[in-house]
Amino acid sequence: MDTLFPYEAYQYIALNFGLVILAAWFYILLLILREFRRFAVSMTGKGQLSEEHESVIALCKESVQRASQFSEQNGRTISELAQVQLALEQQLTQIRSSTADHITKEEQDSINDLNKKLSRSHKLIRKLKGDLDKTSKQLSDVKTELDIRTSSFIELQTNNKKLHDEVTSLKLQREEWFNEPATPVSQDKAELNKIINDYKRQLHEQNQLIEQLSLQTSEEFDPAEIAELQKDLEQAKTKIKHLNKEKKFIEGRYLDAVKANKSV
Length: 264
Fold this sequence. Notes:
The structure is a single chain. The chain is an all-alpha fold. Helices cover 90% and strands 0% of the residues. The protein folds into two domains: 4-178, Glutathione S-transferase Yfyf (Class Pi), Chain A, domain 2, CATH 1.20.1050; 183-263. It has five helices and no strands. Residues 189-253 form a coiled coil.
């Protein structure tokens, strides 16, 4: 009996010492997690696109991964301590049953005291396990948030590059359009003037023909032919109006190109 109690006491001291160390590391882990969350939110919540912030996000993810590994190690340590706690409780039960008929009052008091301490250790282990599960959940939430922010960061970078490429392409198209030689525009203008002049000449000839027809008697010319000539005349006038509109459009484009070349 005397040899069992010192051994049990050493086990209890080792158990308490392990719980104290575990609680200290657990508290440090909570502080790291709290500061890390503040740091991660302050750095990734601004939406700035920079290589520095990208490296910070990578560093944060690495820190979360290490903290998760540390949390898993603490979880295994708590499981081992729980097994030790269970073994001690079983040994204490065996001692009480084996010495129930000849135990002294001092030994009974020692056993009761050890039983109370084991009960408190059991509650502490359960509390640490609950806190560790909560911390693991927080680490998982932070990792998910970082993954979302990383995905958003990459998406913003991709969209920014796409917009940059589109702006660059538009600038190149603008420069190519402004640098186009004025000769094709001038040629189009000359060709359009030639067509307009041809229609004007045809219109003038038709007007002269109609005037000649009006001076002659209706018996010599068929009224249907005169109506057909008047119809052709109206069509020619309509074509001249459209050609004048196209001429003004080409002239406007030509002037805009000239102004743009001067401003560049």
